[in-house]
Amino acid sequence: MSAAQAMATEARAPAREEEEEAAPAPPVTRMAIAVLALVGLFVAGYLSLYKMGIIGEITCQVGSCDRVQASPWAVFLGVPVPYLGLAGYVGILAVSLLGIQPRFVGARWVALALFGMAAVGVAFSAYLTWLEAFRIHAWCQWCVVSAILMTLIFLLSIPELRRAR
Fold first, then answer.
1. Least confident among 14-18, 88-92, 134-138
2. What is the CATH number of the domain that holds 49?
């Protein structure tokens, strides 16, 4: 290798390092969504363990979780509602974690998937909250916590729509 080629190679090396350093930072909203989805996963997991009979009694400091979980609306299309929550939170967590990886930071599908899943989740949570208030006449604190988490996830997913353009 000639001296000129060696100098050209050295000149390109810092440029590559700068390109690697200039990789886009993971979106803070996606990191926050991942944390909230993880908390939701624990809530839905706890309710699922109760529904499976693994946990004998559900701990509910406020409201009547047993009454809500025993109601006819605790099953949707033949699937216990906590299992649907578990699946939803797993999906949101997986997509949000993928979305903070450098190669997916700018991916349009990540933004649309997060917004879409959050929109479905918040709509379903609103429906379940309506059922608690007007049909069951009882509140489950864990269901309310899940509804709040899903609402926060939905609100954090709105800025993602800018990335989808």
1. 14-18
2. 1.20.1440.130
Of 84, 63, 72, the residue nearest 150 (C-alpha): 84
Residue 40 within any structural domain of the chain: yes
The range of the structural domain enclosing residue 69 comes to: 27-163
122 neighbors 151 (Cβ within 8 angstroms): yes
| φ, ψ for residue 143, nearest 5 deg | -70, -40
DSSP labels, 28-74:
HHHHHHHHHHHHHHHHHHHHHHHHHTSSSS---SSB-HHHHHHSGGG
Dihedral angle computed from the Cα positions of residues 106, 107, 112 and 113, in that order, rounded to the nearest 10 degrees: -120
Residue 132 domain flag: yes
The pTM of the full predicted model, rounded to 2 decimals, is 0.83
Q: Structurally, how many domains does the chain consist of?
A: 1
CB 81 within 8 A of CB 150: no
From residue 109, alpha-carbon distances to 115, 131, 150, 153 in Å are 10, 33, 20, 17
